[in-house]
Amino acid sequence: MTNILTGLQATGTLHIGNYFGSIKQLVQKSNTLRPEDNLYLFVPDLHSLTADIDHAKFYDAVLDNIRIYLASGLDTTKPNICTFRQSRVPAHTQMQWFLSCYSYFGQISKMTQFKDKSSDNNQNINVGLFTYPILMAGDIFLYDAEYVPVGYDQTQHLELARDLAIRFNNKFDQPVLTVPKSTKDQNIYFGMDKPLNILSLTNPLNKMSKSSTDLSSKILLTDSPQIATKKIMSATTDSLELINWDWDNQPGITNLLQILSLVTDTPTAQIIDKWRGQTRYGDLKKEVAFSIGQFLTEFQIKYKAVTDEVILQAVAKGEVIANLQAEIVLTRVKKVLGLIK
Ligand code: TRP
What we know:
The chain is mainly α. It has 2 domains: 3-191 and 308-337, 3-Layer(aba) Sandwich (Rossmann fold); 215-304, Orthogonal Bundle (Tyrosyl-Transfer RNA Synthetase), CATH 1.10.240. It is built from 14 helices and 3 strands. It has helices at 16-31, 45-48, 55-71, 91-100, 105-108, 112-117, 127-141, 155-172, 183-189, 225-233, 251-263, 268-275, 281-305, 308-337; strands spanning 3-7, 38-43, 81-85. Helix 3 crosses helix 13, helix 4 packs across helix 7 (127-141) and helix 7 (127-141) packs across helix 8. Tryptophan is lined by residues 5-7, 9, 44, 47, 136, 139-140, 148, 150, 154.
């Protein structure tokens, strides 16, 4: 039995890199899941409270996260696919408290995401932001998850979870918590040992980033084809005037070729064959813009077709299963702590 779990945050900012780099892989995995495996996909809405969010829009925004996956082909009617909202499973906050008492302040203080987020220009440095990696570790343990697909920015938190589980098990001299696999094993399992490299359109020395405030650097899943076209047509390239697949010397052009391969679902070799040696960057950009426009139109039709009712049905089922599963692990923990017999 293999359990996979992941948390999906912040829909409004998801871009094509997130889609092709993680959402699509996960949905593919979900379609080939063995009956004995389980996939838990949840919205970490408690985590979102650490940020300055728009509370009036929050309820719907949480459901929109799930809408993205349903639009991408996730079949939540399967018995082993479970979608839920974190706040609907009280075990998460209880687990966090238990784990906090076995987490060292020094170790938690080393988390680079907290250091970044609490740097000078951020006003809202709340305690939740600091302890959130512990909440995240609990998310993973409650579902005995071994595989936890996360972006590069979360690997330190995943390593922390491994560390906490191992230490907790050693302390109580029994396998209470399931230790998640190492990042390396995770990547192999998801076929991401060579991670997808989608670069910023304005500065192809950086990755396309969810948190970047430069909107022309990325194509959002919610962009209209017109906006996407503008972004592609003004993408930064180079002055070599020769199309080549060359990440080192022509990252901008290579990035465009890769995007074309992804949105048209065509092998890169075929794309390279067609474009290598050509000189007109404008022609390439036009084709990329057109193909992205098609991809976005199709995606957005599917996105709009997912009704609230379908989402609420999916989470209603998922939240029953999630609570049952989480209670099992929480009980295991309470027992070794001596809170229950
Ligand atoms: N922290 C993750 C992020 O910012 C989201 C998350 C919360 C998560 N809990 C998790 C991911 C548990 C995987 C497993 O993207």
